[in-house]
Amino acid sequence: MPRPALIVRSSSAALVISVLFVSSGSVCLPTVKRSGPELTSIRVPVGFKIEVFAEGVSNARAMCWGDRGTLFVGSRDLGMVHALEDTDGDGHPDVQHIIAKGLQMPVGVAFRNGDLYVRSVDRIVKLPSIEDHLTDPPEPIVVTDRFPSKEHHGWKFIAFGPDGKLYVPVGAPCNNCLSEDSIFASITRIDPDGSGLEVVAHGVRNTVGFDWQPGTNDLWFTDNGRDWLGDDSPDCELNRGVPGGHYGYPFCHAGSVSDPEFGDQRACDEFIPPAALLGPHVAPLGMRFYTGTAFPEKYRGAIFIAEHGSWNRSTPIGYRVVVAFPNADGTTTTEVFADGWLDGARTTGRPVDVLVAPDGSLLVSDDAADRIYRISYSGH
Fold it and tell me: Could you tell me if 282 and 265 are in contact, meaning their C-beta atoms sit under 8 angstroms apart?
């Protein structure tokens, strides 16, 4: 039996179908065929399977779980935040709530003590006790508005760290520049009430995904390399955090590529090198350590990374999920985990974020196909 699709549309081009349930911005709809990859074209390792977890989740970007199993999903272009509920307990969400509208690129979502925190470019807002109010969401409360208002690299992932602080990256306001304001090209953190703003990492051009390694609490993050140095340079990065560390931008890229404009000011050996090079212009976004037990032992403690894919390379690359393995000797190796969203020059989807589900499966959001996929392991 086909799973119900979750679709909310506000444009005049919306599909017209019979609504089964509507209440204060909550919609449950029958299955509707949408554009997107046929799942048989997506390749995963032997023993794994990929399926559609939810569709019609418009512009699905970053994801986080609520305490009661609600899946919260941010968006970039539509200014809305989704909340997906599985009300019948079949393992697939069947009701979608739009819990916020009119925000500025609300990509990042983070849940803490019943409240949902949302990044809206220059500010962090909070929806208090949100799982009690999915059908009648409260007006967002501004936690802080101290972040820059520039939209270039202004849409960001956010997450609470093991120290209880909210980590908020601030991207470079350009492709490649040296800003006088040191908050740009950084990762910051704040207290849950918005106070205590501090920079914890410098020289980070555009990170849209990070997580903390279980057992060490070390911060790891992806970073998108600069453009217009050619098809094959520089690589995008996976980095391991060092408190107060500088990762090179805009002086040095990918650990060894001296910038043609700023590289004469500081040498590459002054900066923390990447833990792994991911490829040029692959656009690594969301990343998570695998904390479940449903996958084979090989993947436990590994890092899953969503590559959104290149946008200006003559031959597109990326558009896949890769997995990185931090090794005991300090090296990190990578391999492809799921691909097939790129077929030659044709793309059928763009992975954005990854999230471990309570059952140990892996969710992958796709803002091009308006879908969320689930990858699970059956062993056969």
Answer: no
The residues that bridge with 366 in the sheet, in sequence order, are 351, 371
Backbone angles phi and psi of 233, in degrees to 5? -155, 140
SS (H, E, C) 47-86: CEEEEEEEECCCCCCCEEECCCCCEEECCCCCCCEEEEEC
Looking only at the bridges linking them, the beta strands covering 371-377 and 48-55 are antiparallel
Which among 302, 310, 313 has a CA at the least distance from the CA of 354?
A: 302
Task: Provide the 8-state DSSP code for 362.
Answer: E
Closest CA to 339 of 282, 379, 291: 282
* Residue 86 · residue 92 · CB < 8 Å: yes
Distance CA 196, CA 143 (A): 12
For each of the domains in the chain, give its residue range(s) and CATH number, in order of start: 21-377 (2.120.10.30)
Contact 272, 242 (CB under 8 A): yes
Read off the DSSP letter of residue 133.
-
Tokens of 80: 């809305």
Return d(Cα 194, Cα 158) in angstroms, integer. 13
Token pair of 127 as six digits: 């929806």
What are 345-359's pLDDT values in tens digits?
Answer: 889 999 999 999 999
Query: Residue 339 has what DSSP assignment?
Result: B
- Cα angle for residues 37, 42, 46 (degrees, 5° grid): 160
Distance CA 27, CA 37 (A): 24
Which pLDDT tens digit goes with each residue over 124-139?
A: 999 999 999 999 999 9
Strand order across the beta sheet in which 235-240 lies: 210-212, 219-223, 235-240, 276-280
What is the spatial distance between Cα 310 and Cα 280, in angstroms, rounded to a whole number? 8
End-to-end CA distance of the chain: 22
Amino acid at 162: P
Residue 12: pLDDT band with limits 50, 70, 90: very low
Parallel, antiparallel or unpaired: strands 245-246 and 252-253: unpaired
For residues 364 and 372, what is the distance between their CA atoms, to the nearest angstrom? 5
Determine whether 112 is exposed, middle or buried from the number of CB atoms within 10 Å of its CB (0-12, 13-18, 19+). Answer: middle
